[in-house]
Structures are given as structure tokens and as C-alpha cells.
Amino acid sequence: MSNSSSLTKFLLAFADTRELQLLHFSLFLGIYLAALLGNGLIITAVACDHRLHTPMYFFLLNLSLLDLGAISTTVPKSMANSLSDTRAISYLGCAVQLFFIISFLLAEYSLLTVMAYDRYVAICKPLHYETLMGSRACARMAAAAWGSGFLNGLLHTAKTFSIPLCKGNVLEQFFCDVPHILKLSCSDSYLGEVGLIAVSACLAFGCFIFIVLSYVQIFTAVLRIPSEQGRHKAFSMCLPHLAVVSLFLSTIVYASLKPPSLSSPTLDLVVTVLYTVVPPAVNPLIYSMRNKELKNALKKLIQ
User: Fold this and answer.
1) Which one of 87, 177, 249, 259 is most buried, by most CB atoms within 10 A?
2) Considering only CA atoms, which of 68, 9, 41, 107 is closest in space to residue 291?
3) Quick one: DSSP state of residue 185?
4) Would you call 289 helix, strand, or coil by DSSP?
5) What CA–CA distance (Å, rounded) separates 276 from 257?
6) 6: exposed, middle or buried (C-beta count within 10 Å: 0-12, 13-18, 19+)?
7) What is the DSSP letter of 87?
């Protein structure tokens, strides 16, 4: 199979029976609607309520946009395939899907790193918060997160689709991703993409270390706060972000580092759903559960 010709990739269906295909469609539809509703409400509330025009909520608005982008890249196509009983995706469609899923996921990870810095400055350097987290600084950091994600998406997509593919056209995944496309390569030219993945992994590890060090200093500062009310407020600011980071990273790390002996098409699908489909649906719930300001804005918006 030559990657220069007009090709059709095939996605692994969740089930072969019509009943299970419809069940898959219904489950994905429910999750997708929950993500659209939750993230849509957060975006609208932050945009419309002037009390939420702060750095923390500005970054939360960007996170919701990225979540909507990520889940909209994979889930609608998978639902359409189940509903129409097909596994096909065009060669161009596969490339576009790969570009956007990499871009949105890496931009989200960069944004979560920026949000950790925001929490660090708010708690550990409160007197310098307005100076360090001004509107221009926040806009630059958000733009850098989006830009780095889309630059990585472009590089990975261009490199992956420059590799000759000759081992069939079946991707054992419900969307196009790099590891499963590389399995179809017929030469050692995939080593260039592996090198690019290694560079991206090193940068991601650097972000992880930054997040960990930020929270070490945050928790050290919080435990020094004399009042219980002050400690509770500080923890309420940080725990939702920490929960989102933990959910995002734990599933990706498990998917990347799990032993081959534990690998199976079904398990790979479940793990992939956990880091591409579930977080966009549950992130709004995590952020709104312990946040009175956001709860009040959402209630006002709904009423």
C-alpha cells in the first residue's frame, strides 16, 4: 500500500453485532452530549460573568475549548461508523484526525502545566500575582500552550504520513493514532517518528516535573496557613486541577508503558477511551464540584 495513492484506512469496530454497535453508539452519544453540555456551560459562564474574568477561569475556559476539540475529533466519527455499520475512514480524514487529536491533547497538557504555575503564584507569591499573571501574560501563556500543541501535531502528522505503509490497512483503534499507523509501516523509516516521539516525551516529562515541584511548594505553603478556613480555600483551588492532571496523565502513562503481555485490542481500546473520551466529559464536573463561584455563575446562567 503506497501512502501517495488514494487510500482508505479502516478503524476497529467495537463490536460485530448490530445490537452492540447500537449500544456503543448510545454510550458514546451520552458521553459526547455530557461533554458538550458541561464544557459549553463553563465557557458561557466564564465569558458572561465578569466576576469570573480572572486568570484561573480564563485558563479553565481554554481547557474546556480544548476538551471539546479533543472529543469532537474522535467520537462523532466513531458514532457515525457504528450507526452506519462501517469501519472506513479516508486517508485524508485519517491524517486530519491524527493532526487534531495530537494537537488538542498536547495543548491541553501544556495548558495544565500553565494552570499549575497559576496556582503556584496565587498561593506562594500572592503579592506578585497581579504582576506575574496580568492579562497579557495570561494571553501569551495560553497562546503558547495552543501553539506548542498544534506545532507538535503538524510535525507528528507530517512525519507519520511520510512513511511508506505496506502491512494492510486495518488500524486496531477507534480513531487514527501514531502507534497503530506505525505498525503498518514497511521500512525502518518509522524510526524518525519514534525519535520525534522521544523528544516530545522528554518535553512532557519536563512539564510533569514542573507540575510536581509546583505542588510540593504549594502544599508546603498551604500547611503553613494558620487558619483552617484559609487552608480549606487553598485546597479547594488546587484539588480540582490536581485531579484533572492525575486522570489525564495516569491513563496516558499506562497506555504508553504497559507491558506487551498485558496488551490486547480490547484493553487498548478501553485505555484509549479513558484518556480521550472520559476526561472531556468529567472535567467540568470536577471543576464545578468544589467551586462556589463557578456553581453560582452556572446557577445564574441556567435560571
Assistant:
1) 177
2) 41
3) B
4) helix
5) 17
6) exposed
7) -
Task: Give residue-wise pLDDT tens across range 225-240.
Answer: 888 888 888 888 888 8
Name residue, grid cell 499507523.
181
Q: How far apart are CA 192 and CA 98, in angstroms?
A: 17
Classify residue 216 as exposed, middle or buried by CB count within 10 Å of its CB (0-12, 13-18, 19+): exposed
* CA pair distance 265, 156, nearest whole angstrom: 23
Segments of the chain with pLDDT less than 70 = 1-15, 187-190, 256, 258-263, 265
Question: Phi first, then psi: what are they for 7, rounded to 5°?
Answer: -120, 165
Contact (Cβ atoms closer than 8 angstroms) between residue 91 and residue 9 = yes
pTM of the entire structure? 0.89
* Alpha carbon of residue 151 to chain centroid: 16
Residue 261: burial class (beta carbons within 10 Å; 0-12, 13-18, 19+): exposed
H or E stretch including 124?
helix 91-124
How buried is 200 (Cβ within 10 angstroms: 0-12 exposed, 13-18 middle, 19+ buried)? middle
Cell of 220: 508546603
Helix, strand, coil percentages in the chain from 3-state DSSP, rounded to 5: 80, 5, 15
Please tell me the predicted confidence (pLDDT) of residue 4.
Answer: 39
Where is 60: in which H helix or E strand?
Answer: helix 55-84
Give residue for cell 494537537.
Answer: 103
CA 53 to chain centre: 23
Closest to 114 measured CA to CA, from 158, 58, 41, 68: 58
